[in-house]
Amino acid sequence: MNQPTSPITPDSLTPGCRVRITKQIARQGTALTNSVEGTVVKAEQRKTGSWFAHSKDDRLWLDRLEITKDDGEVYICNVDSQTVIEVIPSEGTDDAA
Question: What number is the average pLDDT over the span 5-11?
Answer without folding.
Answer: 54
